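go over whats below:
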Amino acid sequence: MSLVQEFNDYRSRMNEKIMAADNKVIKRFFNLDTNTYMEGHVSVKTKEMIGLACSMVLRCDDCIKYHLGKCHEVGMTTEEIYEVFAIANIIGGSIVIPHFRRAVEYWEELQQNPPA
């Protein structure tokens, strides 16, 4: 199973369980997240670049994978992704490098085996 498929399957499965708990606060938080990344005065593409850079600086591998998937969906190029990687590394410093490595691996997987 590919890294992308494994991540997406796990995320979907766990989100279903979380939503099945029917907790109003959690549902509202998830909805807030969804609405934040919708098209607005700032484009979805720009929002995903911001989300990716922030996720790298915060060192959240799941968030990095999620935003890389969204960046892939909106048609970002590898050159654009590497510019975001550069920003994240400058802001976050050398502690971001291990996450950068995993991000490169995941991006390459997305390029070779995009999600269905």
About this structure: The CA atoms of residues 45 and 74 lie 6 Å apart. The mean pLDDT is 96.
